[in-house]
Amino acid sequence: MHIHILGICGTFMGGVAALAREAGHRVTGCDAGVYPPMSDQLRALGIDLIEGFDADQMALAPDMFVVGNVVSRARLPDGTPKFPLMEAILDAGAPYTSGPQWLAEHVLQGRHVLAVAGTHGKTTTTSMLAWVLERAGRAPGFLVGGVPLDFGVSARLGQGPAFVIEADEYDTAFFDKRSKFVHYRPRTAILNNLEFDHADIFDDLAAIERQFHHLVRTVPGTGRVVVNAREDSLRRVLAQGCWSEVSRFGTDGPDTEWSARGTHDAFDVLHRGAPVGRVEWALSGEHNQMNALAAIAAADHVGVPPAEAAAALGSFRNVRRRMELRGTVARDGGAVTVYDDFAHHPTAIRTTLDGLRRKLDGEGHRSDRIMAVFEPRSNTMKLGTMAAQLPWSLEAADLSFCHSGGLGWDAASALAPMGDRARVVDAIEALVAQVAAAARAGDHIVCMSNGGFGGVHDKLLAALRARD
Asked: Whole domain around residue 59: which residue ranges?
């Protein structure tokens, strides 16, 4: 089969392309601004990429067009279609489907799908679960919205029945407004957490809760729903109905099966209060401890003993762009450290910075400063829906620098409660210059964005070296 993928350079659609190619299909694709790293990964797989969405791509005559949710029926100011290829597909009556639907029909059918859903931590928890199954000899397939360092690729078919997938609540396509995860039909589903997000497609938290309940409805009676016991929103989801085994994690309550005892980087895993394994790793933060409990509970459903799962997590190396160390620069007898992190929702920003603060304090580096460098780039943040939460999310940072380019709301006003601890800059070059000038020995600079952030990490490292 020849498939042509519209929007192929997105993380999810790029993963679909890699799986299709591995399965022996001919794969081509197009996107606006064919960009690395996904473009490099796809070309290495022998996938031809086309710049733009011109209608002349109809001449490729694929068996199926697979349409990403970046594609719409939008029109430019002059009235011409923004995606002329899509208009040509519709006019010709050519066969088309969504990425999640194609995946469900051609990859997931007949597999034991383990789906990881939640506002935060999906990529990390999916990677943890895949790694646990890998170390247990299950050779799982997976599709992750990032690149796990332990595998070096974002997707593979695998050899065994298990397939681990990051289950996104974002919409499927312009012609299918259901959440992507509704297509996956998991036997094991993790509901990691649930907050308001994606303000561009959801009116309120209740609308997202309904989509999560649609996912719960698809889990069979012999399946397992692994649920964060701390979340009121998830309690409301389950209250709408659940027909599967429920396994809760995260608290010491009477209904909670899985909990932890110890520090975030070395803790015992408890099952109904009894120790069943121990995790000792390099990761920090309570959020990663919670992610670990979810992965262990899900792996238990497919027969991996908790002690074995916990031991496997001791060698887990995390995911690219999750507090990924990008470099250090010597400074005044010490060093300035630069990290890259995917955090963009206020809760994720706070969790990331708080985890680093606790790690530094625990290592005796209480005087080290944390400098947060971030851009409100997600659709929700661009709308300004959560602007008022930014000062709360940045409490653990000693200094914060916000890139405000392209925003339709006043970032300076939103960050005014932080006083001189926050600075707003509208250009990358000026941002880099200000951060480099403010940096001193012992500083930890955390760059946070769900995009490329204009290459700010390398520019910062270069500026710091040049200043020295």
From this structure: 2-99
- For 74, phi and psi rounded to 5 degrees? -65, 155
Q: Which residue has the tokens 């309904």?
A: 210
Decide if pLDDT at 98 tops 90: yes
State CA 83 to chain mean position distance.
Answer: 27
* Residues 302, 161 share a domain: yes
H/E stretch holding 9? none
Q: Please state, in angstroms and rounded to a whole number, the distance separating the CA atoms of residues 337 and 231.
A: 34
| pLDDT, tens digit (0-9, with 9 covering 90-100), for 43-54 | 888 899 999 999
Which residue has tokens 């050519």?
Answer: 94
Q: Are residues 125 and 237 in the same domain?
A: yes
CA 210 to chain centre: 21
Whether the pLDDT of residue 358 is over 90: the answer is: no
| Same-domain status, 161 and 274 | yes
Residues in a beta bridge with 224: 188, 245
Q: Is pTM beyond 0.90 here?
A: no
Rg (CA), the chain: 22
Whether residues 329 and 309 share a domain: the answer is no
Which ranges of 302-400 would DSSP assign to H, the alpha helix? 306-313, 346-362, 379-382, 390-393
